[in-house]
């Protein structure tokens, strides 16, 4: 405290290297989640607790490591200072890294959360438009899967007589042009249940088999349903089960379906009329077969995916992004103004000794800009890594580049940050020209 009661600033204690420990521990924990999730011996609860704990440590670690990174950046940039404003601002950042980072800490966390949301959202299924053309299953084709006749006995397949009856009745429906049966079988040579039973990798083998399931159907039916290049000396071809979703047919010569129990896919190609689709759908539902899924087209599947939980979460995620961006920008402005009020005496002294007002404004701008630029890149990188672990470490999905909405939000954050910096610089100019200058002159 000065002789007239004016408070004087004290240099902060330099941040210590151990400030990086929480951030490094959080990143190491996220890496452990990725490694541990590959094993089958660790429970889901343990992985979840490790993931949540590592996420919290990483986010809080950014706040803890921010002053140290700000101090390092200021000392490094001070060597190349070219103007009085840069010397003043970098000198203050080196002496008061905690106070400088405190003003931008909210923005750094907001950008971290924004990036985490935006990157994780890319793992959502999405609502891609079904591809059409040669090789693709027409969007006017209904398909469903007939399971075992007795649900309690998976080894009892659907009776051939029941399947033939359903095919004959569907062929008589007005608007139905093609009716086909396809057996869903694992690729030959992929291994049977006897090979994987009792094995540690049995579940993984089953998952790979499901992903590689193929449909065996006659060449005539395959051509009628869009696979125009299907040909085989045996009269049978197999196509990937992804053909039912959004993949082009990859017909390969195949043997006639065996006697082993396997699900049967019932397909009905229509002329596209709403009446034909509904009539065929109704007949499938009332055919007496044990259907394991509702009869749909590829367009129906797209509509269902649009209402999936992950896509609804994506919409909520963008709302959270906007809220976080707005709150962080307001926090930046308030924190910067509070910092200026605490330093009003120092700014007034600089003004009284002849420092131009523009230099003071630029000095305040540099003090706010450097912590943002120095820690922002680290926050974005940590967020991308966290999102990658969150998605790939707990599921079989992958992440992609954020959509344009993310870049628009980040651009808006930077624009609002620029406005906050300009407003703070103008506020600093007004402070040194008001009553504060007279108080310091009297002192």
From TrEMBL:
Region (Disordered): 182-211
Superkingdom classification of source: Bacteria
Ranges where the ABC3 transporter permease C-terminal domain occurs: 319-430
Record-linked InterPro entries: ABC3_permease_C
A UniProt-annotated Pfam family: FtsX
Gene Ontology CC: plasma membrane
Main subcellular localisation: membrane
Subcellular location: Cell membrane
Membrane topology: Multi-pass membrane protein
Chain ranges passing through the membrane: 20-37, 49-69, 99-121, 316-342, 363-385, 405-425
Keywords from the UniProt entry: Cell membrane, Membrane, Transmembrane, Transmembrane helix
Protein name: Efflux ABC transporter, permease protein
Organism: Actinomyces massiliensis F0489
Classification lineage: Bacteria, Bacillati, Actinomycetota, Actinomycetes, Actinomycetales
């Amino acid at each position: 405290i000065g002789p007239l009661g004016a408070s004087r600033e004290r240099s902060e204690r330099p941040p210590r290297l151990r400030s990086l420990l929480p951030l490094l521990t959080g990143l190491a924990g996220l890496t452990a989640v990725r490694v541990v999730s590959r094993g089958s011996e660790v429970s889901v609860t343990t992985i979840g607790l490790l993931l949540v704990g590592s996420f919290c440590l990483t986010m809080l670690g950014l706040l803890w490591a921010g002053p140290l990174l700000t101090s390092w950046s200021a000392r490094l940039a001070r060597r190349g200072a070219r103007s009085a404003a840069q010397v003043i601002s970098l000198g203050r950042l080196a002496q008061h890294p905690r106070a400088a980072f405190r003003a931008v800490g909210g923005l750094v966390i907001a950008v971290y959360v924004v990036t985490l949301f935006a990157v994780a959202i890319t793992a959502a299924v999405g609502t891609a438009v079904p591809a059409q053309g040669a090789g693709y299953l027409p969007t006017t084709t209904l398909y469903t899967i007939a399971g075992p006749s007795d649900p309690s006995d998976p080894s009892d397949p659907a009776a051939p007589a029941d399947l033939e009856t359903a095919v004959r009745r569907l062929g008589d429906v007005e608007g139905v042009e093609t009716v086909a049966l396809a057996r869903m079988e694992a690729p030959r040579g992929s291994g049977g249940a006897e090979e994987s039973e009792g094995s540690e990798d049995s579940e993984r083998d089953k998952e790979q088999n499901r992903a590689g399931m193929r449909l065996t159907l006659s060449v005539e039916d395959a051509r009628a349903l869009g696979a125009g290049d299907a040909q085989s000396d045996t009269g049978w071809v197999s196509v990937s089960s992804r053909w039912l979703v959004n993949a082009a047919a990859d017909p390969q010569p195949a043997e006639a379906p065996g006697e082993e129990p396997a699900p049967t896919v019932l397909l009905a190609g229509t002329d596209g009329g709403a009446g034909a689709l509904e009539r065929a759908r109704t007949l499938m539902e009332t055919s007496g077969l044990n259907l394991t899924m509702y009869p749909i087209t590829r367009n129906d599947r797209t509509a269902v995916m649009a209402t999936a939980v992950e896509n609804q979460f994506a919409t909520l995620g963008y709302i959270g992004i906007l809220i976080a961006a707005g709150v962080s920008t307001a926090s930046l402005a308030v924190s910067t103004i509070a910092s200026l009020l605490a330093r009003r005496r120092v700014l007034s002294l600089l003004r009284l000794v002849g420092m131009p007002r523009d230099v003071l404004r630029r000095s305040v701008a540099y003090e706010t800009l450097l912590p943002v630029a120095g820690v922002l890149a680290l926050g974005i990188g940590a967020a991308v890594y966290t999102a990658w672990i969150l998605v790939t470490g707990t599921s079989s999905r992958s992440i992609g580049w954020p959509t344009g909405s993310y870049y628009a939000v980040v651009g808006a954050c930077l624009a609002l940050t620029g406005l906050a910096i300009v407003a703070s610089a103008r506020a600093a100019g007004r402070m040194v020209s008001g009553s504060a200058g007279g108080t310091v002159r009297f002192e």
